[in-house]
Design brief:
This protein is an alpha+beta fold. It contains five helices and three strands; from the N terminus they run αααββααβ.
């Protein structure tokens, strides 16, 4: 068929050679993985930032992150006197944080869960 063009002809029509015309920023993007660490800790950094802004003792904030086949699991521990500030009235503050984490996880096809650990447990 005469209507088909070769790769070299297409490259010439676009105004360049095929060796130097690739865009590395687009070509190097990793595909989204559904099995784990797509966010690469952005969710943990987000939780750490928000929680440290809420509490009176930001040095007492401890956050651990675990990735398994069920998704991402984040555990947060704060000083005993800061538990009420993290949880909020009727749990509204921690529920809002969970919703935001769910949205962040959805962007990377991950399920993100948040657990507030009582100071004695961790």
């Amino acid at each position: 068929m005469d209507d088909e063009m070769t790769t070299d002809e297409l490259t010439e029509d676009l105004g360049g050679d095929d060796s130097a015309s690739t865009d590395d920023s687009v070509a190097s993007d990793d595909p989204v993985t559904t099995t784990g660490d797509g966010a690469q800790g952005k969710d943990k950094d987000f939780v750490e930032f928000v929680v440290k802004q809420l509490v009176d003792n930001p040095t007492e904030v401890k956050i651990s992150r675990r990735v398994d086949e069920l998704g991402v699991f984040i555990m947060v521990s704060v000083a005993k006197e800061d538990m009420g500030k993290l949880i909020g009235k009727n749990g509204q503050t921690v529920d809002a944080l969970r919703v935001l984490l769910r949205v962040m996880g959805a962007k990377d096809n991950n399920r993100v869960n948040l657990k507030v650990v009582e100071p004695e447990e961790m």
